[in-house]
Specification:
CATH class of the largest domain: Alpha Beta
Shape: globular
CATH topology of the largest domain: Aminoglycoside 3'-phosphotransferase, Chain: A, domain 2
Domain Protein kinase: 11-271
Strand order of the largest sheet: 1-2-3-5-4
Order of helices and strands: HEEEHEEEHHHHHEEEEHHHH
InterPro entries: Aminoglycoside_PTrfase (IPR002575), CcrZ_PhaseVar_Mediator (IPR052077), Kinase-like_dom_sf (IPR011009), Prot_kinase_dom (IPR000719)
Low-confidence stretches: none
Pfam family, one: APH
Largest sheet: 5 strands, antiparallel
GO molecular function, one term: protein kinase activity
Protein name: Phosphotransferase
CATH superfamily of the largest domain: Aminoglycoside phosphotransferase (APH), C-terminal lobe
Length: 271
């Protein structure tokens, strides 16, 4: 792929892989110019760029082999540290994303349709049964029971564009103090509790939840937390199934630890 890019951009550009799991990202450099290149990014990237949520999209180019290469402006900065995810600037950015009708309409035009919580529950239940994980771990059985018990409160909620991978490594802070959220490959249309619940649970001290939610634009309430934990448990079970399929026993142990913690939290809410 580097050779293809080199032929397309010209010998004066120095093109190197940018790393990452997919191997589809590259850095192009010429003189004092630097671009971030990615192969076959979603057309959704253009709207994200226009909204100022990702670094500016410079151009899109279709290559002879049919691949589409996007080039974004390179910005000097760094990934957020885990403790920085509780900052109000993150809440502001997430609120901007969730309130954007432009992002929502574009993702819908691209054919993205939300799965209902009932559909997602049925899917994970079938996966757990076929993998026999339910027969091996009490944590899984308890988690699935909690999902079923909390299912009614997840229905008929507002759907927005959710990033679905709010790891601190995906939030970039530039040297000029701008915040960007990258890696939108898992984006979907869903209950926003899926996004802010992840940040609250894994990054924000519980005593600061009310302050963080207020900045985001919500008041703390029990129904909100029930929805939040429903998606956190679902996410943990999804990862558990995936790690089981990959035979990653170390990761399975991590997910079971997460499930025990989440189950305790839900039990405290319900009782």
């Amino acid at each position: 792929m580097v050779n293809w890019l080199q032929q397309t951009f010209g010998k004066e550009w120095n093109i190197t892989p940018a790393g990452g799991l997919t191997g589809d990202a590259y850095i192009a450099e010429k003189d004092d110019k630097r671009l971030f290149l990615k192969r076959n990014s979603s057309p959704f990237l253009a709207v994200l760029s226009a909204e100022g949520i990702v670094p500016k999209l410079v151009f899109t180019k279709r290559m002879e082999n049919g691949d589409v290469i996007t080039a974004q402006k390179w910005l000097e900065g760094r990934e957020l540290k885990a403790e920085e995810m509780q900052h109000h600037q993150v809440a502001d950015l997430l609120r901007k994303i969730h309130e954007s009708t432009e992002l929502l309409h574009m993702l819908m035009r691209l054919g993205n349709k939300p799965l209902t919580p009932d559909e997602r529950f049925n899917e994970i239940q079938a996966q757990l049964e076929s993998s026999e994980l339910m027969n091996q771990y009490r944590e899984v059985t308890d988690a699935l029971q909690y999902l079923e018990q909390l299912l009614p409160v997840t229905r008929n909620q507002q759907h927005v564009v959710c990033h679905c991978d709010l790891n601190h490594n995906n939030v970039i802070l530039t040297t000029k103090g701008q915040l960007y959220l990258v890696d939108w490959d898992n984006a979907t249309i869903a209950d926003p509790a899926m996004d802010y619940g992840y940040i609250l649970k894994w990054y924000v001290p519980q005593e600061d939840w009310n302050d963080w939610l207020s900045r985001y634009g919500l008041d703390k309430n029990e129904a909100l937390f029930k929805r939040m934990y429903w998606y956190l448990i679902l996410d943990a079970l999804d990862y558990l199934v995936w790690h089981h399929e990959q035979n990653r026993t170390d990761k399975i142990a991590d997910r079971l630890t997460d499930l025990r913690d989440l189950n305790r939290c839900v039990d405290a809410i319900l009782n």
